[in-house]
């Protein structure tokens, strides 16, 4: 959902909520009937304004409905080649990043997330490491290896690589 749709959703839900609160107050008797009918007569007396307002609400509701039910496109990095487009799914880059991170000594587990950035892609890696390593040195090595390998394989510039160490453990994963 883009910024326009979010703004539309905020305005739409605010107006509908206020209208429903007003209707509930009128039904519950908190607003005297003569005020309800007086307000409705004033609105109904201007049919062009009512039709324009209802048209805007219908269009806004239809737009929000479409945004809610339309199928989402998978995010990918797109290269324009001489013979056409080359799309690389962000999940494919995530797999590559995890393989590069796991190839480093001392990294037991790795999970990656790839986000589109303004000048390339941004990568976040969560790793589990063994206690016999120097974490800053391994993290710097993983960052450099990931940046170089992603550029080499995909041709995509890596904007930054953030590493989070989620655990330090000597246990090795069980192989069954």
Automatic annotation (TrEMBL):
Keywords: Membrane, Transmembrane, Transmembrane helix
Pfam families xrefs: Asp23 (PF03780)
Gene transcribed to yield this protein: amaP
Source taxon at top rank: Bacteria
InterPro entries recorded: Asp23
Name under which the protein is recorded: Alkaline shock response membrane anchor protein AmaP
Transmembrane spans: 7-31, 43-66
Family: Belongs to the asp23 family.
